[in-house]
Amino acid sequence: MTLTPDLLIQNVKPVTDTKKGGKKVDLRIRGGKIDSVGDGLKPEPNEEVYDAEGAYVSPGWFDMHVHLREPGQEHKETIRSGCEAAAFGGFTEVACMPNTDPAIHTRDVVEYIKKQSSELPVEVYPIGAVTRERKGESLTEMSDMKEGGAVAFSDDGDPVWNSQMMRLALEYSAMLGVPVINHEEDLDLSRPGHMHEGEISARLGLDGTPAIAEEVMIARDILLAEFTGGHIHVAHISTAGAVDLVRKAKSDGIRVTTEVCPHHFDLTDAEVHARGFDTNVKMHPPLRTEEDVEAMIKGLKDGTIDAICTDHAPHAEEEKEVEFIYAPNGIIGLETAWSISVMRLLQPGHLELNQLIDKLAFQPRKILGLNLPEIKEGEPANLTLFNTDESWKFDEREVRSKSKNSPWLGQELTGRAVAIYNKGRFVENRLRN
């Protein structure tokens, strides 16, 4: 991996504990570390200069829920293309889910992913499967995978449906000091749902997935976390009732955390009808109601919802261009997460800038027990440079993923990540329009 030469970033505003970021500073980076932070630093010989006028800088963002598809589904995404999408979206680190082929259920697959990403500027942290082949029948060698680099365990794509298996997983993970991340879905209640069960699904004649299917499984996992002392992390929360359950559990001192995706605080099930059964608004959990969207925003504001993630789920064009009921669930989200967060959370005043950065940079790492990067002299440079006011169009030329299944394709967005620095590499995100 070729390192970026010594770099001077000028006129950038650090996001600190203040609501809107601090005054402009210059950052000098040498050998991948922050050498100095000051005002009016002058370029030195053989030093690259990047004028970040108008941009903010924060510790690098972390997406703790992505699907990179490799190994086994490289026609949808590869580790390299997924990391290119992550960098364009402002993420310096991601954690990838285990529903690959083979699943990330043994140490050798964990180490394969680490090796494949070792030369890339985006750090990839594998999440190991809870059960072998994600079948829910027998536990994986969790300790061995953790030693190989796994940072959490999940059967995501499917829930850990067997309660005894979840109990054991929570007990083992508690000993290892990592969370179990569950796709919260009671399959007997949810199948064969193709969208949220409610007024719109009834009007369209589509089988729906009721909110209770998510909430029943969350209630079970909260009880098991209380019983075992383990840490349960609720993946991609989507219902008002689910937020209430997590809020109550936190107040009771139970070890539960959760995340939300931009599509669940931006879009509703009305999109299925409004867009004429566009399969790019089909995902799981499905888009819910306006009441649920409001609950996601309230949960972010009061701290019930800890983190923002994307659930980046690429699918090839031919897989999505089928009838709605036959299309796979999922959308890409790495490239657009910041813009949707700006438009739905920052601009309306639901979150201040420092609060939003906390959901993207700090809370995911705290949940996974990882070190928190700092903008401080002597620290490794792990940075995201971004703005909150740039208007840009997310058309097909701006998609860095191998797949293009996004509900925001073709839309005018606001706010963009302009660059990242990580692992000794500076990546500037230039628009292709």
Can you walk through the features of this model?
The chain has about 425 residues and is of the alpha/beta class. It has one domain: TIM Barrel (Alpha-Beta Barrel). Helices cover about 30% and strands about 20% of the residues. The strands form four sheets. Strands 1, 2, 3, 4, 5, 16, 17 and 18 form an eight-stranded mixed beta sheet that branches. The protein has a five-stranded parallel beta sheet with strand order 9-10-13-14-15. A three-stranded parallel beta sheet has the order 6-7-8. Helix 2 packs parallel to helix 3, helix 4 crosses helix 7 and helix 7 packs parallel to helix 8. The longest helix is centred in the middle third of the chain and has 18 residues. It is globular and about 65 Å long. The two termini are about 30 Å apart.
Give the key terms.
8-stranded mixed beta sheet; 5-stranded parallel beta sheet; alpha/beta; about 425 residues
